[in-house]
Amino acid sequence: MTTRIRDAATGALLALALLAPARAQDPSAPPANGTPPQAAAQAGEPAAPPHWAPRYRAPADVAAWVEAWVATGLAARVALPASRGGREAPALSFGAAGGPPLEQRPTVFLVGGLDGASLAGAEGALRAADELLRRRDALPRAIAFVCVPWAAPDGLARTLEGGAADGRDLLPVDDDGDLAFDEDGPDDVDGDGLVLEMLVEDPEGPWTRGSDGRFLVRAASTDRLRYRRVPEGRDDDGDGRYNEDPPGGVVLDLAFPVGWHGEPGGLGGALPLDDDLSRALADLILARPRLAVLLFQGNHGLLARPGGVEGLAWSSGPGSAADLSAVRHFAEATGRRQAEAIPLHRARAEPRPGAALDWIHAVAGALAAEVGVWGPLEERGAVRVQASAPEALVRREEGVEAAWARWLDDVRGGIGFVDWHPVDLGDGRSALVGGWQPFARANPPEECLEGATAGLASFVEKLAAAAPALELRVVEAARDGEVVTVRARVENSGRLATGLAGADGARLSLALPSGARLLWGEVEARLGVLEPGTTSREVTAVALVPPGGVLRLVARAPWAAPVEREVKP
User: Fold this and answer.
1) pLDDT for 291-323, tens place per residue?
2) pTM metric for this prediction
3) Could you give the domains of the chain?
4) How far apart (Å, rounded) are the C-alpha atoms in residues 26 and 116?
């Protein structure tokens, strides 16, 4: 597996294949733009890239995929700055033909691998966008889509190469405060070609080995053997600690202002959004009308809602109606059984301070969810199975380990885990090395990608189709001389609310023609959040309007396309 993944790093060569005509690989596939392939070739129109295939792509492959779709004219390039390491973050936008410009439509963002570790998430976002582009004409005309499949290029590139899958970018950080940078990183102590985990005996350590000795559980005060859990490696700087200052420093997904903790050497960086790429991604989300932001990442296999740390206002209790609707669409599309969205810190079984998901919810005001592409209950080889009681999976860390143990033994036949074994660290010190191999737990084996990503495009399409839809109901438009009375309501005929509960809701504006004057009533009415199938209160305006004057009503809402109507009483 490692060899295949490292071979993928030669993606500059493979990228040429992405630009070959899709029909050569799949003769039965319909053309993306509805033009017969012969006619397209005669017209000189660029062909779409080959259909998504289950493999991990190198950065050049992802960039070539974006370029190929942009070349067809069916998608537009979205410019983002390079990462700290100089790597590109290719992105594109698309939507059904007709309707307003893409940047003016409520947008569904598909963001892959912002945590820098989830290559499977990057592939999930890429596959979803690829399938949606191929059925572009069937997408809702009022909705736009933006896909950023490799949102954290530095961390993802390190993970792809088989390095530490902690998601860090390449910013040098003095994690241990000794005025040296990145001087004590992981090492392959046992020389097996893998850098795994290491257990160092410590009477105050938080971990002990469970009933299944391969897996760790939280230690109790009565446990005799307790451990600290660190990456495999030696004490390179001689300070008595192991691998406390590894290369790189910031996980982009943990560098957002809401819930952020400014700790020295913390994964969230010295300041939130303190790099060009994450700041540009935040600006991109804020610059467009936003319906939903979906982060494809994590290995819990669930749909997680905001709540990176416990104690945030939205981190406990049942989710909103929008969350429940998203979970229903997710379960229907992917065949996974999930009753409600799980707070992020529970889905991840650890706190996520500064999580992008919380900022998207609190500041951007979008429907925000983390889509766990991969998880221990989702696969049997390459065939998807329904998960049972996913809430129990995230209730306790022991439940997570038990689920992974069953997957390891029943599905993989034990392949993917290196048993703990002693290693000599020098100076009379020893430790245990072992744990999960790369591309086993954090990311699935390549042959499991097909099943793990199945149904994600359908989920996105269902969510977009459920978007709120505003309808203007003019109850009265009457004239008595120059006195005009207009009464109107706004209806939400969609299947989602018009925005987050408690946030800025729908509005109805009345623009008067030149020479007109308002006598009584409202020309800018706040209507609150409109739930699906509901109608707003009646808005009334009485104005002096010269004969022939035309009034213009405009209804707007955070998650809906605006609706405009002229009234000539």
Assistant:
1) 999 999 999 999 999 999 988 888 777 778 899
2) 0.82
3) 2-17+46-165+249-410+443-465 (3.40.630.10), 197-246+416-436 (no CATH), 470-567 (2.60.40.10)
4) 32
